[in-house]
Every structure is written in C-alpha cells, then in structure tokens.
Design a protein that fits this description.
The chain is an alpha+beta fold. The chain has 15 helices and 38 strands. Strands 3, 22, 23, 32, 33, 34 and 35 form a 7-stranded antiparallel sheet that branches. It starts with a strand and ends with a strand.
Length: 664
C-alpha cells in the first residue's frame, strides 16, 4: 500500500445559505467570563516592538510581553525568556471569532481584496506581438517564426554584437561564457536590429525594423563544483528578436481593460495594486518585481512600446470571442483571474465581508466590524492574559519557512465543478478561479470556495535548521497556564451559549493561536472557570445597583448537535499519535511542487490534465496518498506500482478521492 499523509490544513465547509444580516440587537445579559489558557504545544506570539535582523538578513523574534525592545540592541537570553510573557487579548479575540464565524454561518471578515488569485497553467500559450496603436493595445497572433520573429542568443564578436538563432546554439559552455554579455543587453534595453539573411544573424543598426526582447531565463543547478557543491548556470538565456513592420493588413484584437489588468499583475505592474501611489503612475507588486525580464516588460508597457508576448491558445482558437485574454512573457506561465475572493464569496451565498452597520452577520454583531458604509462596536472586550503560572520555554529554534496561503492550489482551495465526473483515475479535468478544463475544453463556471481554512493538531518537530532570510528564530513557550477575562454587554441568551461553546466545545478541544499552526505550534486548551452575570436591583432611593451572580454553563443541544459544531469538533479534537506523525505538506522527496504536479495527471497533454486527489471532507478520513519519485511513477498517472506491492486505483467516493488504492 502506498504511504499516507495528512495535509496540515483542511476546510470547514460554507453553509449553502446566506448569513442572516440584520442590525445589532440588545439582549439582557451582561457580565464577564473568567477563563484560563493552558499551553499544549510550543506556542509563540511575537513582541512587535522590535524584530532583530535587517531586511535581507535572518530574523529573530522575542515572545510578547510589555517590555519595549526598541532600545535593546543586543538580543540576550534574558530578553528571549520574558519573566512575564503575555498573550494579547487581540490574539484570543481573533482565535475565538474564527470559531464563532464557523458556528453561526457568518461572513468571511478577513480576506485579501487587493490581489487577484492566480495559478500556473500547463497549457502552452501562442506567440504574439502586442502593439499600442495610439488608442489601445492590440494583439497579433498571425506571425511566423523565421519571418516575423527569431529566437536565440547575443554574442560579442569582431564585428560587434551579433545574434545567433536558437537552433545554432548547442554549446552550453559557450553560452555560459557569454551569459553576462546577454545580461548587459537586457539591462540596457531597447536595442534595434536588422536581420542579415546571408549569415542568418541579426546585427545592430538604427533602421527600426527589429526589436530585441528577453524572455524568461531558464536556470538549473546540475553543474557540480570541485568541492561537490552545486551551482546554477544558464541553460537558456533566451532572447526574441521580432518586427512589427509586417503587421499591416493583419488582423489585431483590441485587448480589454480586464485582460490588461491581468497582464500588469503578471509583470508586477498594476495601478490597482494596494501599493498604488495615487499619482497616476504604476508601482511594482511584490511578484516578479526584481526579475530583469519583467523589468523590461514594465518599461515597454509604460512607454507603449511593442512587446513580444504569449497569449492563451483558447482565445486564439475562438477568435478572441471570450472577454478575458490571458497574456504572459512566457509560453508556460501563471494566469491571474478576474474572480476575486470577494466576488466568489458573494456568489457563494453572499458570504462576502459585512460593510454596512445595519446589515450585520452574527459574528459582526457580536465582535464588531469596520466597513466602507459604517462601523459597529462589538459586544465583547477581551483582556490580555495575566497571572502566568508554571511558565517554561522551549529551546531557541529556527522555524521552517512559513509562507502565505497558496490559494493557487485550487484542487484544495476550491470545490470541484459539478459537471466534472470522477472515475478510477480521478476527476476528468482541472479547475481554477475563472474556468475549468474538461478533456482539454475550457468551460466557464461559478467557483465555490472549499470553506474556512483550519489546521489539524499535528505534532511539532523541532530540530536544527539553517538560518535564512525567509525563516525565523524564536523561543516559544513550552508550558504555562494563564488567566484572561471576556467582558460581554447586552447579549441574548443564545449568543452567550454560542460564545461558551466556542470557548469550550468539549473538555479536550484544542484551539490554535499565534505562529506556526501548520507545523503543530500554538495548540492551547481553554477552560471556563466562571460566568458572572450582572443582576440589577432598584434601591429604595430610586438608584440602580447590581451584583454578580454565577450563571450555569448550559448549552442547548441545538448548538452542540448542529452540523457546524460537528465540523468544529472534527479539527479541534486531539489526534492519535499515529495521526500526528502523518501530518505534513504534500511532497515527493521534500519537493512540494512535484506532488501537485503528479496530482495533476499528464502535464504534457492539455486533454489529459486532470486532478486525482482533493482534500477529503473534514468529518471523513483525513489521509491522502503519497506519490513515488519519478523513477517509480509514470508520467500519465494511469499506472502506479508502489514498491513491494501490487495496487490499482480505487474509485473515489463523494468529496474526497483520497482512498485511492487497494490491493488486487
């Protein structure tokens, strides 16, 4: 049987009904809940007053406390181990709000509305020339290789700089020596060439016939130094020389604003980006902003110069009848999609964030919100933790790289389209945020998110790791018990019961807080020590006084037995040791990308690309199947013979496709 693993995260499904939005209402219960928090796995909340390490250096962080670190230039062991560590009330508030949203079918309050979802596509794109005609950007795909454009490399010779066609370049050592020369050509940008038909080379002139443009540079690390280390060398420092003089009489297609916005995202240039300076200029997005090839594209786009690009074959085949055209600097590339997460949530039974204080979902009525059309104060106030007891620190450790969510993994983050069918080999297609492919044919659909992202209670594994600019050194808490209070004002009885359930669903329910949730950090258990309710009395003199009385911790069966509660308990319940040891990101020999590539079937044929496994439903079997390395797994994914066993694919059940293999 193939090995199994449990992905670190899963999704609580979104209810197929809109949140009940209404104005905030007053109830009759005010008081506070006295709680305790107990550390169950290494837990880290950073002190935000200072991070040690520069912009391009390894970072070191200190656990949160009321100590201001701004004046502390040297990071000492004393600073690493604050005597009175604190967990801020804002962290506890956010942790409980997430659970409350799941329980009450509320909106998704915190989403990234600025950046478009994207995904690398495996469909090769078609070469094209993109020209600004004085009014709009036009795209021309009726161009011929060796006539309208050439591919190759630049070299310095006796007669100056020449351009050799790609087919003439077989000597990698020669290419490696000339790599810096080619880089200089890219950096200087904007050379014009003339094609010499006699020697089949392009030589620099000033007649404006041909333009030089770099395309994506392919690097590898197969060359081994004498000491055994590897180094990267260029294998395809690749340039395109093209002309737009022959475009007269050819049919161009006017690119829409939506198509251009996606192209701007690809090259790191978008006036709608969150960093837009508001002065009519463009600013670089984080993606692709440093690569030389994208810098050149940005300059050409800004100054409306012709560009050599690639366009999705689907648009070309359908004579650009579809509204969106996907452009890129390379044949195989990312595509940015028009469906933002906000739009998708709106189409998913209106689960987009609340933005009006007269139309609030249950979580926004309870916890508050700030929207474009007003704000609403919440009914709760959380204290920082106090009365820390039995405090102990884990050893100072270098965490693995903790990246932002990879929403491009649409096989996990999106539900499969309803029209796709499931067979022994998986789904008969692949999907993204704008469309899906079924047997190589592109189809529009309304995507649905898989749900609200949550984490399993995996095992934290320490160890020695290299220090890099992308990971962080921390000293987490390893044990400890804290007190905190939640003050509430004018809650309804049901609201209080829902809040109590979110704090303590079961005796052994595990919450997660702080950094490192995917790697088993931040597991804590909450306890309700007391619930105090204000009881008001009218005195003989007409004044009002109140006393605090204990409230019974009764939670209705309607709440405890709801489908939402079952989903919450599915990921909050403790895992067995066997399950804990199975929690890891999908990978083949440590390579995450390769697992997802294998899971997408035959990447060389668009008609055969398909998803094999998706995340199982949260209340079902948690495990997925691993894949063998290349020498064990054929490219088509139709035959998989694990070592020491004879297996074949098993037909998938609803919503999972995870019990993938069985013995013959």
């Amino acid at each position: 049987m193939p090995e199994k693993f449990i992905n670190p995260y899963t999704f609580v499904p979104i209810e197929k009904k809109a949140p009940k939005r209404m104005p905030k209402e007053k109830g009759g219960k005010s008081g506070y809940i006295e709680c305790s928090l107990e550390i169950k796995s290494p837990t880290f909340i950073p002190n935000t007053t200072k991070v040690y390490g520069g912009e391009k250096q390894h970072k070191e962080k200190v656990f949160y406390s009321y100590t201001n670190l701004e004046g502390e230039e040297v990071l000492t062991d004393t600073l690493r181990h604050p005597d009175v560590p604190v967990i801020p009330g804002s962290e506890i508030r956010g942790m409980l709000r997430n659970v409350y949203e799941q329980l009450t079918n509320s909106c998704f309050l915190h989403i990234d509305e600025n950046n478009l979802p994207y995904k690398r596509t495996n469909e090769p794109k078609v070469p094209a020339i993109m020209v600004y005609d004085g009014k709009s950007w036009q795209i021309y795909t009726d161009i011929k290789y060796n006539k309208d454009f050439f591919k190759g490399f630049f070299f310095k010779g006796k007669n100056g700089i020449t351009f050799e066609k790609k087919s003439d370049m077989e000597d990698k050592e020669k290419l490696k020596k000339q790599y810096s020369i080619s880089q200089d050509i890219v950096n200087e940008n904007g050379y014009i060439l003339d094609y010499n038909a006699n020697n089949k080379k392009c030589e620099f002139t000033c007649n404006g016939q041909f333009y030089v443009h770099s395309t994506t540079q392919m690097l590898n690390s197969r060359t081994v130094n004498e000491d055994g280390s590897r180094r990267k060398i260029p294998t395809s420092n690749h340039f395109v020389v093209y002309t737009n003089k022959n475009l007269t009489g050819k049919t161009g297609y006017t690119l829409s604003d939506d198509s251009l916005i996606r192209f701007q995202h690809i090259i790191g240039l978008d006036k709608n980006h969150k960093d837009y300076d508001g002065n009519g200029s463009y600013t670089n997005s984080d993606m692709n902003k440093n690569a030389e090839v994208y810098k050149q594209y940005r300059e050409r786009y800004r100054h409306k110069k012709p560009m050599f690009v690639y366009v999705d074959a689907h648009s070309v085949k359908n004579n650009f009848s579809n509204k969106i055209v996907y452009l890129a600097p390379s044949s195989i590339s990312k595509e940015f999609f028009g469906n933002t997460i906000d739009k998708i949530l709106e189409n998913n039974d209106e689960h987009q964030p609340c933005d009006n204080n007269t139309k609030l979902c249950p979580a926004c009525r309870m916890f508050g919100m700030i929207g474009e059309n007003g704000a609403s104060k919440g009914k709760l106030r959380f204290t920082d933790t106090y009365k820390a007891e039995n405090i102990g620190y884990y050893q100072t450790t270098n965490l693995p790289i903790l990246a932002t969510p990879r929403i491009s993994s649409t096989e996990f983050y999106l539900k499969p389209p309803d029209d796709l069918t499931v067979s022994d080999n998986g789904y008969d297609g692949i999907w993204n945020y704008d469309y899906y492919l079924q047997n190589g044919r592109r189809k529009a659909y309304s995507p649905r998110l898989a749900g609200r992202k949550v984490y399993w209670n995996g095992k934290f594994v320490g160890g020695i790791r290299d220090k890099g600019i992308m990971n962080t050194t921390v000293t987490p808490l390893d044990r400890g018990r804290f007190k905190f209070k939640i003050f509430f004002d004018k809650l309804k009885g049901k609201e209080l019961e829902q809040l109590l359930f979110c704090i303590k669903p079961t005796d052994d329910a595990i919450h997660k807080i702080g950094n490192g949730k995917p790697i088993g950090m931040g597991q804590v258990v909450l306890n309700i020590d007391a619930v105090k309710i204000k009881k008001y009395t009218k005195e003989s003199d007409g004044s009002i006084s109140y006393s605090l009385e204990n409230e019974p911790l009764d939670i209705s069966d309607e709440i405890k037995n709801s489908d939402a509660a079952k989903n919450i308990l599915a990921y909050m319940s403790p895992m067995s040791n066997e399950e804990k040891n199975c929690v890891e990101y999908p990978n083949i020999d440590g390579n995450i990308y390769e697992w997802f590539a294998k899971n997408r079937g035959n990447l060389g044929d668009a008609k055969k690309i398909h998803i094999i496994q998706v995340l199982p439903e949260i209340t079902k079997d948690k495990k997925l199947s691993k894949y063998e390395s290349r020498n064990k797994f054929n490219n088509s994914m139709n035959e998989y013979t694990p070592k020491h066993s004879k297996t074949r694919p098993k037909k998938f059940g609803k919503g999972g496709g995870v019990n993938m293999f069985k013995k013959k």
